Amino acid sequence: MTVRENKTKSTEREEIISSESKRNVILSVKDLKTYYPIYGGIFKHKIGEVKAVDGVTFNLYKGETLGLVGESGCGKTTIGNTVLNLVPITSGDISFKGEKILSGNKKTAKYRTEHRKKIQMVFQDPDSSLNPRWKIVNIIGEPLRILERMKKRSQIRARVLELLETVSMKAEHLDRYPHEFSGGQKQRIVIARALASDPEIIILDEPTSALDVSVQAQILNLLKDLQNRFNLSYMFITHDLSVVQHIADRIAVMYLGKFVEWGKIEEVFYNPTHPYSRALLSARPTFDPSSKSNRIILEGDVPSPINPPEGCTFHPRCQDRDEHIGCGVDAPRKISIGGDHYMMCLPFKKESKSYEGMKFISD
């Protein structure tokens, strides 16, 4: 495929998303907070909490891919686990197709089997998510028995074969065990299992991080083909910026449990505005020896989510903190940079020219 054809297809896909998908919010997350309690002492009293996700709001649209990026421990995977109800929600609301399925107020929402069928997950390590004692036909057939209520073995076997063929595998793989497959084949098996219940949303937790580069490309192309074929919505969790640039339509940059910048791929990658986003993107490896590297080196370590800094949580490491007002005191505010591009930051000093094209908004 030529570069021009690739750009044309990308433009066509963006037009489809902007004209159709944005009118159809399939998953809505409002002010999501997920805290893990810390117990200590003889009687195991609660002595603190880890603020893994601390006030995140976003929408996932039908047929699009939303990329979540950031350093390890910033809360990306916890968002996915909370949406799947694998970890309890502390506060906030999660809605699927306008129906509230999870809430800090347990009485106002109920996570049903139907929601489990429609929201699936592909975990980071296929080895740990596949039962080594089961054959592939049983592994992929389990959601068919539990969620789809299939009883006949012949019917389950036929459906499993159909799913394996969907991910470019063969009938000879049905009766093999997980240890007989390569890493890429295992990831295809996990993807086939996720497709078994006919989902509308698939949460992909770093699905290519344990794979070789050539195999990564195969899995990414498979995911894009499946998305176009079944009109799936993806939440793609990764720390690999090159991968998310290739597959995602929109991106959200996370730092210490919060979104610091989000927007379309082109907006964030070619116009990174938040200091953390600029530092993160400057760390990308380049294969062009003639290009100059303007690497931004951040000071210190990531603060503890048990006791995050006051005000802007990024200010102890921020390379631009001298240009802002009240970094260590005031909470960041939402700033519109133009289009669908936003960031969370604080006002600039009057002598700074960074105000141009930006607008503080209340929500």
Description:
31% of the residues lie in helices and 25% in strands. It is an alpha/beta fold and 363 residues long. Helix 8 (213-230) links the parallel strand 7 (201-205) and strand 8 (233-237). It is globular and about 70 Å long.
From the structure above, extract its key features.
single chain, alpha/beta, Rossmann fold, nine-stranded mixed β-sheet, four-stranded antiparallel β-sheet, 11 helices, 13 strands, disordered N terminus
The CATH topology of the largest domain comes to Rossmann fold
Q: SS-based structural class? A: alpha/beta
Structural domain count: 2
Overall CATH architecture of the largest domain: 3-Layer(aba) Sandwich
Please give the order of strands in the largest beta sheet.
Answer: 6-7-8-3-9-10-12-11-13
Q: Between the first and last Cα atoms, what is the distance in angstroms?
A: 42 Å
* Total E-strand runs: 13
Q: Calculate the mean pLDDT score and round it.
A: 87
Strand content: 15-25%
Low-confidence stretches: 1-10, 12-22
Question: Which series of helices and strands comes N to C?
Answer: HEEEHEEHEHHHHEHEHEEHHEEE
Cα shape? globular
Cα radius of gyration in angstroms: 22 Å
The major pleated sheet works out as: 9 strands, mixed
Summed up, the helix count is 11
Helicity range: 25-40%
CATH domain class name of the largest domain = Alpha Beta
CATH superfamily of the largest domain: P-loop containing nucleotide triphosphate hydrolases
